[in-house]
Each structure stands twice: as C-alpha cells, then as structure tokens.
Amino acid sequence: MNADTFVGRSLTPLPQTSVVGVLVPIPEPWAQVLVDWRAKVGDAQATLVPPHVTLLPPTEVAGSDRAAITEHLARVAAGHPPFEMHLSGTGTFTPVSDVVFVAVAKGIGNCELLASDVRSGPLARSLSFPYHPHVTVAHDVPGDMLELAYTGLADLSAEFRVSSFTEFEQTPAGTWTVAREYPLTGPPHRS
Questions:
Q1: DSSP label at residue 140
Q2: Which one of 13, 45, 157, 166 is at 20 to 30 Å from 26 when CA atoms are compared?
Q3: Model confidence over 105-131: pLDDT tens digits?
Q4: How far apart are CA 100 and CA 87, in angstroms?
Q5: Residue spans of alpha helices (H) in the chain
Q6: How many CA atoms lie within 13 A of 2 on its CB side?
Q7: CA 128 to CA 3: how far, in whole Å?
Q8: Is-above-0.85 flag for pTM?
C-alpha cells in the first residue's frame, strides 16, 4: 500500500473532514471484466474500488473546503477536452510495489495534464511516487496471483471516450461513493 492509490486505503478522517479521490472511471463492459479479474486473483478491493485511472489519490479534506473543491474541479473540467483512451496489455510495479495493472496506451498525456491540474489549488498535494496513469487489477496478492493477472490480461484492449472525471468520497465502511461527476468541456489541446 502507498499513499498514491485507492487500493488497500481506508483512512479514518478526523471530525469535520472527509476523504476524497478523483478518477477517470472505466466504463462497461470493461469495468466488469476488471472487477471479475480482481476477484479471481483474490484482491480484497475488487468490490470496494471501481476500476479507474487515478487523478487524485485518497486525500483528506476539511468539510469547510468542499465548496472550493467543487468550484476548483469544475474549473479544471472546463479547461480540458474529452479524449480517447486505449487500455492495452499489462504492467507491474514489482519490486517497488506488488501491483499488476492494465496499461494506458493512449490518453497518458491527457491524464497527466488533468491530474496535475486536479492536484492544485485546494487539492494541492505531493505524491509518494511519480504519476503513472494505469488501472490496478491486482494488489498485495500472492505472487502466483500477480502472475495470473499479468498474463491473463496481457491481451486486453479497451478503447473508449473519456468525457468526464468523477469525484469520490470514502464512506465509513471504506467503500467509495460518487460525490459528483465533472464533464470535460474545454477546447482541444494544441499540438
């Protein structure tokens, strides 16, 4: 577990605070495929954390900052256009972290720009590791299960349009619930 991931993360917020995260959700039918694989390899987070690309890892915020955060995220979304994402193949962070992920093959730059803008203003924070957009499919499971996820999803290819990002809030039970969706309405990025 590290501070940059939703995986295995259950913070106990202080009174009058909440834990939020911002992500690009993976749409169906691929979301269910990824949930099923996480469950198959024994990842306890399979049903708690929806398949996603993280833009802002779990972050504790003051309740009094929620309105400013909503305004900030709306401004960020208004500054970025929708984009195409292609998930293709697998990768791993082993030995740094026992994680297998589905790789973002197209849309990396868009995610990097979005994540940088999201992690500014009232959500400014540093990361424990350099930002690397990906979709976690196995974390803190036995080595043979990491290998199963790595080889079993190696041929996965999923292409879809990203037209919004989602702010999630952690419940006391450790699950994540949608707080708000933010449509991407900005002009195309210049090449």
A1: S
A2: 13
A3: 999 999 999 999 999 999 999 998 899
A4: 14
A5: 30-40, 66-78, 108-118, 143-152
A6: 14
A7: 6
A8: yes
